[in-house]
Design a protein that fits this description.
- This protein has two domains: 2-76, Nucleic acid-binding proteins (OB fold (Dihydrolipoamide Acetyltransferase, E2P)); 83-148 and 186-247, no CATH class.
- It has seven helices and eight strands, in the order E-E-E-E-E-H-H-H-H-E-E-H-E-H-H.
- It has helices at 78-81, 85-98, 108-119, 124-141, 173-176, 203-225, 230-246, and strands at residues 2-15, 19-26, 30-36, 53-59, 68-75, 160-163, 170-172, 184-185.
- InterPro entries: ARFGAP/RecO, DNA_rep/recomb_RecO_N, NA-bd_OB-fold, RecO, RecO_C.
């Protein structure tokens, strides 16, 4: 058995004296594991860093085996990702999220989205909203997608301000007003056409996006599996808060 594909390194666990088990998210093979020999060598160490995109060739005698990876570097982002707190926490969080996907199941759209987020992780004002959108895409891939296109009560596609925790559908401002204490806020940057081009997203909106995705991830994915992403999410959110504060974009109450 053999295939060659591009993959983002999620984690690398040392095995024995010189080898390591690499966990990657590939374009066509999905989340996949494989053994890398001589992982501690001077040539391999810079490649086997989380967030890097690699050209991988996987070989095994039988499909169910761990198999061996041959590795070449394609996009070595780890160096500049280590220079920004949002990026450091972001890589960890993205890896934890992607690990929720079943092993060896192709999700080409998510792979592409992941590479886009990673390419912008050193730019916090861009990376934050991209991570929220990645979490929404992940929920959709797992079968728990949100419908933010129109109001669940009226069918209108404008002035959407809330999300129903029961139906996972958007609700307009007027329709949701009597029940707003029971609804989740829908940040404007997630509503098509609500944000004017060139305007900045503030941290109040970004935090609302993180709260929205965390609710549904916990309900449908991490909660039932007994998993906890709060550690990586808390650190990442705090790093983004600091970056947005420095940019003067905290929003209401900031």
């Amino acid at each position: 058995m053999e295939w060659t594909d591009d993959g983002v390194l999620l984690s690398c666990r040392l095995q024995g004296e010189s080898a390591a088990v690499a966990e990657v998210m590939t374009r066509h093979q999905g989340r996949h594991l494989g053994l890398v020999r001589s992982a501690r060598s001077p040539r391999m160490t810079p490649l086997l860093q989380p967030g890097n995109t690699l050209r991988l060739t996987w070989r095994a005698r039988l499909p169910g085996q761990l198999g061996l990876f041959s590795v070449e570097g394609l996009s070595l982002r780890a160096g500049f990702l280590m220079q920004e707190a949002c990026a450091l926490y972001g890589v960890q969080h993205l890896a934890a999220l992607t690990r929720l996907l079943p092993e060896r199941a192709a999700h080409e759209g998510l792979f592409q989205a992941l590479t886009v987020v990673l390419d912008h992780l050193h730019e916090p004002l861009i990376a934050g909203p991209l991570i929220v959108r990645y979490e929404l895409a992940l929920l959709t891939e797992l079968g728990f997608g949100l419908d933010l296109s129109r109001c669940a009560a009226t069918g209108q596609a404008w002035d959407l301000a809330y999300v129903s925790p029961k139906s996972a559908r958007a609700v307009s401002r007027d329709a949701g007003a009597p029940y707003r204490d029971k609804l989740l806020p829908l940040p404007a940057f997630l509503v098509e056409g609500e944000r004017q081009p060139g305007t900045e997203i503030n941290f109040t909106d970004l935090s609302g996006g993180f709260t929205l995705t965390a609710f549904f991830l916990d309900r449908h994915v991490t909660g039932p599996a007994g998993l906890d992403l709060s550690t990586t999410r808390t650190g990442m959110t705090a790093a983004f808060a600091k970056a947005y504060e420095q940019a003067g974009l905290m929003g209401f109450g900031g």
